[in-house]
Amino acid sequence: MPIRHLVWFRRDLRDFDQAALFHALGESASVYTVFVFDTTILAGLPRADRRVEFIWHCVAELKRALRASGGELLVRHGDPVELIPRLAQELGITAVYCNRDYEPLALRRDALVADRLAGLGIDFRQYKDQVIFERDDILTAAHHPYTVFTPYKNTWLKRLGQADLDSYPVRERLARLAPCPDEPMPSLAALGFEATDLGALNVVPGMDGGMALLEAFGQRIDRYKTLRDFPAKKGVSYLSVHLRFGTVSIRELARFAWNHGGEGAMCWLNELIWREFYQQLLWHFPQVASESFKPAYRDLVFPNDEEWFAAWCEGRTGYPLVDAAMRQLNGSGYMHNRLRMVTASFLVKDLLIDWRWGEHYFAEKLLDYDLASNNGGWQWAASTGCDAQPYFRIFNPVTQSEKFDPEGRFIRRYVPELAALDNKAIHAPWLANSLPVGFRLGRDYPAPLVDHAAQREAALALYQRAS
Ligand SMILES: Cc1cc2nc3c(=O)[nH]c(=O)nc-3n(C[C@H](O)[C@H](O)[C@H](O)COP(=O)(O)OP(=O)(O)OC[C@H]3O[C@@H](n4cnc5c(N)ncnc54)[C@H](O)[C@@H]3O)c2cc1C
User: Fold this and answer.
1) Where are the CATH 3.40.50.620 domain residues in the chain?
2) Class of the 130-167+206-284 domain?
3) Does any ligand 1 atom lie closer than 6 A to the CB of residue 240?
4) How far apart are the first and last CA of the chain?
5) Looking at ligand 1, which residue's alpha carbon is closest to its atom 48?
6) Keyword Coiled coil: yes or no (predicted)?
7) d(CA 380, CA 377)
8) Which of 94, 102, 156, 310 is the most buried (most CB within 10 A)?
9) Is there an atom of ligand 1 within 6 Å of 217 CB?
10) CATH number of this structure's domain 5-129
11) Is 277 close to ligand 1, i.e. is its CB under 6 Å away?
12) Contacts 24+ apart (CB under 8 A), 303-308
């Protein structure tokens, strides 16, 4: 019998520059492929979940692409710990190939799958794919993981060679996909989900969607550094969801930035390195998923006012930029990076609410939700994580608004009840000398939930007690 391999797709939903697929195709002339809608993850999600719909479309596109190359993507629904070994046994597979995932639950799942496969005499082979450098690739001179970004980045850049950016030429080998009878794809409803508003949002799933965004961003990458902090401007790439599900290749993105060069591209590469910094951090310190990276802040006692939390979630804190950002998140599943920092700082240091509450809320709502980056971002904002800055960096939500949305364009878009306020009043309506006729603060838009100056002092005292 010819050697048969099985490629298990997870967060790498593409048929190009894909490490596991490349290696499997190189080592067998008969390669099967599978994607599992994992019930252990799906069980905890609401029936209408934009991410599930996004993934569903990506899987459907990948299935079409692999079919067009003469293969078939088998799509299963269940627990991969049971399904993968069973399928491998049914198909007479020699080895299962997949790309590494560094999240604690994924590591546990993969260890169980590897164990079961070993019991059946089947190999489990894993590859680096979603990052340029992983795990112990970048260590300090003393062989410790980096816990501060800048030295990590410097070593990352020093280590980078052309080979790290080379694509895996998968497409040349796709003829080795095992021919299979066409299998229908389970519908969203069959998976227990319903369609969301994804189709109405400006989000195109799949490799096609990722490619279109990359091409468009390529035209404006030179302006990235100057525009990236202004949420009303089209400065950033919007590629995060595609990086999350692997419909773009990190090697392609980093190579593009590196070859393009210049301030804008290098600034963008810096952000891609932040992503890897947080990935390696989670891998080395998996405990950050549930507690502060800095031990001193593990016992911080936040007052956690539930009504304030609800106001933050719903975008009715009375701070226009914070509210606009939360409404962007709720309405689209995306939030601009500057605003993730502003809203996270506001939750923790103005409302004195545990960063994990916010982290959890973002995890539910973000289309690009990624445990490593989300946790890293929240711990950065809460000053509990890997950050050279001390806890007394506290964003002022009004000056952030004046600086990064000076004409209130972003606020007007998401908080239309403030549209008639002038460019000064819109950042802090309660301080305005005059408001438009007929507009009443507290009725048409909330009065501020808290006083920033007072809460700042309270936050400093809270952190000081723990330091
Ligand atoms: C509180 C908080 C929570 C966050 N949660 C997530 C999350 O769940 N998923 C996620 O992908 N990013 C998260 N980020 C990082 C960042 O906000 C998003 O990656 C970015 O806004 C996505 O938009 P973009 O693709 O247009 O980014 P661009 O500015 O175009 O950046 C390109 C890519 O670089 C990476 N990147 C950019 N900034 C960061 C950063 N600060 N940390 C890590 N990677 C970065 C992303 O992969 C991004 O797609 C979070 C940041 C904060 C402060």
Assistant:
1) 5-129
2) mainly alpha
3) yes
4) 65
5) 240
6) no
7) 5
8) 156
9) no
10) 3.40.50.620
11) no
12) 303/352, 303/353, 304/352, 304/353, 304/354, 304/357, 305/351, 305/352, 305/353, 308/351, 308/353, 308/449, 308/450
**Rounded-to-integer distance, Cα 329 and Cα 120, Å:** 46
- Give start-end residues of each CATH 1.25.40.80 domain in the chain: 130-167+206-284
Number of helices and strands (H, E) in the chain? 20, 5
Q: Which amino acid is at 36?
A: V
Ligand 1 centroid from CA 334, angstroms? 10
Give the separation between CA 36 and CA 372, rounded to whole angstroms. 22
pLDDT tens-place values along the chain, 467 residues long: 679 999 999 999 999 999 999 999 999 989 999 999 999 999 999 999 999 999 999 999 999 999 999 999 999 999 999 999 999 999 999 999 999 999 999 999 999 999 999 999 999 999 999 999 999 999 999 999 999 999 999 999 999 999 999 999 999 999 999 998 889 999 999 999 999 999 899 899 999 999 999 999 999 999 999 999 999 999 999 999 999 999 999 999 999 999 999 999 999 999 999 999 999 999 999 999 999 999 989 989 999 999 999 999 999 999 999 999 999 999 999 999 999 999 999 999 999 999 999 999 999 999 999 999 999 999 999 999 987 777 778 999 999 999 999 999 999 999 999 999 999 999 999 999 999 999 999 999 999 999 999 999 999 999 998 87
Please count the other Cβ atoms lying within 10 Å of the Cβ belonging to residue 144. 9
Pairwise CA distance, residues 316 & 361, whole Å: 16
Query: Is any ligand 1 atom within 6 A of the Cβ of residue 340?
Result: yes
For domain 295-466, give the fold.
DNA Cyclobutane Dipyrimidine Photolyase, subunit A; domain 3 (1.10.579)
